[in-house]
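Quick one, probably user error.
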């Protein structure tokens, strides 16, 4: 893309974003009159997009070294603002151009760019891509323990190893970087990452110790953004310790300082953290205030991930205060943002493929020049081989003709025998398929219905402090009835005698009373949910059982949110937890997930899973009512 065209597109984007911001500001102005949105800052132009001078500097560069330095300044601007897509785009471009040009100390320049691209990929949760770029950075560096770029890429490598599940290996790499760091900045960068590791392990005292060491250095050497990042993590630790007022004071300081210094992504992250603090404290009005601020700015800056987090928080706040109309409107926005994120990821993959394709084209052109003579030989063989093939076929025809009459009767007899055997095989196959389908159905019913109830009974028995005999007897009796009904191939009786919303609420309350996790259930509108077909009720109930059982077993979550609604003639089920998450490219799904897919297939449902390690899981299920 040419620089002039890029500038024109950016100016159009500025105008669109300014219009959107003004409209949203006046739309939410009524909320501010009752203690709503305060602190929202509407910008005349998008402050996360660089001015023309940076592009002009690149365009006027007289040699590649000047162009490299100017492009690096542009990347540094985007790093400060937190524009991950721009960091990755210009980093990729600079890396490709550097490999094609002669430059003094070329390998170090490539290592430096590799580290920047890798950090952008890591921040976006693209762990495999980040790993590849950190390895590139290590390869281009001097690969010596005291080399700055070597250690910088090794720190990133340790973080990726840790979040991809190789926790001890990743931790050991970062600890070694603390020992070998050639300067204080890299040493305290490694301590910062150690703090993150201990935080995810819930070893908060060790996390605090490493964070405070790193912060002391960042403050003394005026690394303001790094110090503010640490304050945001320290605020999270204070909130975990129950010191909510101190946590809010610290995070608000990050929120305000980041805005005043132009660290816009950090500013938005701090707003989301504060909003979640208020949600956990059930201070829904303040949660709406701060999350609305983040939501509006994220739309202006086109930061889809932060916008998604803000919508989730706002949706919970409106639902808890009974404003289901706004909660449903936000659910629609959430679906839009999830789709845009998916499209963005697909576009990014296409761009990566285009780069690989162009590289492949260059290699193919070189190979073509080397194989021109070989093509002449191949052309000669192409002419010769058909002639030889025709001669051989003529010979074979003569040989075959003499035997054809003798074997014709035998062939006909074999055809009749084969047809009879095929017919028998089809009958056997149909019988086996029927048996397998019935076995799958019974296995699914045992796993989802009876297995879910037995998991609840086990949870009750293991929690002696909350063991209630009547509740336990009720659960055992219900499981017995389900076994009895399964043996008669009947629909569970309770779905005929009780309202569907009552059945789900009682089930969730039973689980919630005996678990440590905070579980919320929102159903709207209840009348329409209760009127859906009985077969669909049974399937939805079992899907919720399966999702909740899996979350309690594997997610290690502190908060689980379940939302069930009827909207636009569609059942919408949104299931979210803040647990350990998983890498969707690496995970192996078990019987429970296969049963879930089978159930959705029978009711023509669609499922969207959004999960990353250490970032929780969001499962969005849509089922048409017609």
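Nope, works fine. Designed sequence:
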């Amino acid at each position: 893309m040419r620089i002039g065209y890029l500038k024109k597109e950016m100016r159009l984007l500025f105008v669109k974003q300014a219009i959107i911001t003004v409209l949203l500001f006046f739309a939410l102005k009524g909320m501010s009159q009752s203690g709503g949105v305060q602190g929202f800052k509407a910008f005349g132009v998008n402050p996360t997009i660089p001015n023309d001078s940076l592009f002009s500097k690149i365009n006027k560069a007289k040699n590649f070294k000047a162009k490299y330095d100017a492009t690096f300044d542009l990347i540094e601007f985007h790093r400060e603002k937190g524009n991950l897509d721009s960091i990755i785009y210009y980093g990729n471009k600079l890396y490709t151009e550097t490999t094609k040009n002669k430059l003094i100390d070329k390998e170090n320049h490539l290592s430096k760019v590799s580290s920047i691209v890798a950090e952008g990929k890591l921040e976006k949760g693209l762990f495999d891509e980040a790993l590849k770029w950190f390895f590139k950075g290590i390869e281009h560096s001097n690969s010596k323990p005291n080399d700055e770029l070597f250690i910088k890429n090794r720190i990133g490598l340790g973080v990726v190893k840790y979040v991809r599940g190789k926790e001890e290996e990743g931790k050991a790499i970062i600890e070694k970087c603390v020992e070998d760091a050639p300067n204080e900045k890299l040493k305290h960068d490694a301590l910062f990452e150690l703090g993150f590791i201990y935080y995810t392990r819930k070893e908060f005292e060790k996390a605090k110790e490493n964070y405070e060491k790193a912060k002391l250095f960042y403050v003394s050497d005026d690394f303001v953004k790094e110090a503010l990042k640490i304050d945001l993590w320290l605020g999270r630790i204070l909130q975990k310790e129950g010191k909510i007022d101190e946590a809010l004071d610290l995070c608000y300081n990050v929120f305000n300082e980041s805005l005043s210094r132009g660290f816009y992504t950090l500013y938005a992250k701090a707003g989301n953290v504060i909003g979640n603090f208020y949600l956990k404290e059930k201070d829904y009005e303040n949660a709406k205030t701060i999350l609305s601020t983040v939501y509006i700015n994220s739309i202006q800056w086109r930061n889809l991930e932060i916008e998604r987090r803000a919508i989730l928080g706002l949706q919970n706040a409106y639902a808890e205060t009974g404003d289901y109309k706004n909660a449903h409107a936000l659910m629609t926005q959430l679906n839009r943002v999830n789709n845009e994120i998916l499209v963005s990821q697909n576009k990014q993959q296409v761009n990566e493929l285009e780069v690989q394709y162009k590289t492949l084209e260059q290699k193919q052109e070189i190979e073509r020049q080397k194989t021109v003579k070989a093509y002449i030989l191949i052309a000669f063989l192409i002419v010769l081989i058909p002639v030889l093939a025709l001669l051989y076929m003529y010979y074979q025809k003569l040989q075959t003709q003499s035997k054809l009459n003798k074997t014709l009767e035998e062939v006909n007899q074999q055809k009749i025998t084969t047809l009879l055997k095929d017919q028998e095989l089809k009958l056997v196959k149909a019988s086996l398929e029927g048996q397998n389908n019935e076995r799958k159905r019974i296995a699914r019913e045992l796993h989802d219905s009876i297995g879910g109830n037995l998991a609840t009974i086990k949870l009750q028995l293991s929690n002696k402090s909350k063991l209630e005999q009547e509740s336990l007897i009720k659960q055992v009796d219900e499981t017995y009835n389900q076994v009895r009904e399964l043996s008669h191939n009947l629909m569970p009786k309770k779905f005929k005698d009780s309202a569907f919303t009552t059945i789900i609420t009682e089930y969730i309350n039973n689980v919630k009373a005996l678990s440590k996790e905070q579980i919320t259930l929102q159903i709207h509108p209840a009348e329409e949910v209760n009127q859906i077909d009985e077969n669909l009720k049974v399937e939805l109930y079992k899907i919720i059982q399966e999702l909740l059982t899996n979350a309690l077993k594997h997610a290690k979550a502190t908060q689980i949110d379940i939302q069930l609604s009827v909207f636009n003639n569609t059942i919408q089920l949104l299931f979210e937890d803040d647990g350990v998450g998983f890498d969707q490219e690496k995970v192996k799904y078990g019987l429970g997930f296969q049963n879930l897919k089978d159930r959705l297939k029978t009711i023509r449902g669609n499922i969207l899973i959004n999960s990353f390690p250490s970032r929780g899981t969001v499962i969005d299920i849509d089922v048409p009512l017609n």
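The two ends are 47 Å apart (CA to CA).
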